Amino acid sequence: MSINVYLGIDVGSVTTKLALVDEKGKYIDSYMLKTAGKPVDAVQDGLRHIKEQALAEYSIQGVGTTGSGRNLAGALVGADVIKNEITAHAVAASTNIPNVQTILEIGGQDSKIIILRDGIVTDFAMNTVCAAGTGSFLDHQAQRLNVPIEEFGATALKSDNPARIAGRCGVFAESDLIHKQQLGYPVEDLLYGLCQALVRNYLSNLALGKELLPTISFQGGVATNSGMVKAFEEALNTKIVVPENHQTMGAIGAALLAMENHQYTETPTKFKGWEVGNMNFQSITCQCSGCSNSCEVITILEGSEPISHTEKIGDIKGNIIARWGGTCGKWDIA
Fold it and tell me: In this model, does residue 130 exceed pLDDT 70?
């Protein structure tokens, strides 16, 4: 039996997520894996796994991509919709969480806040600079304290007297943590102190001047950390909702956007098929010398034939499926 579904792919710097929804937007399945610096391999592995774990045959009606690698993923699989993470997370939250007005999202390498009113994004902010406001900061400090990241939240919740750790800068936070550790603070107090520091960093950098009204949804990988959920609830003095599929909300949002696009346009999907998981792809980066911008232009080619690397973009030969990176769009091929 074949089921009509929509596929969403969220390619982040740390993890890649794939999700499927049916024709009514209901969640069906998802898969998450480490990007590990190889987004092409991650997308292909994800496609293979989500097909292998399928309980029925899936007929893809539309594909949406999001995340920092959305253009690359879109070129590889043949996406119908390519949207930023703000839009994807907002659509997923507004569809799955009644009366949501604020979205807190913290991933491995960046964090976001999205303000919604009546299901429409009215404001947002992103942090892609400060390491102390991301999940990798917690992961790194957990390793320093010899605590598995899976046990971070449960251990932090045991704290009775959390350490006050400076969280405005990752470097200063690490130095302060070491200092508190040498003073003899218990591990649970250090861990919950880190949660509070990250929350203060997040609220002072991203939420400054914004009205955070309930219902508040906490999304992204860091929402798995129960210590972070408690720290946000204490800081905001309100209950935080953590969706069941909080780690894959971006991919779910991309799938919902693909569904909306297909139902509105009624055009066939551009999806290249499940065999994309077994295709060969190569990339070449060249610097354009057309002007003083000296843009780095990335070219994605399909096939396993050896590529003769060249410094001139116009000399690249082969089955070019996508190209981007230039400021003026001279070389772009979508």
Answer: no
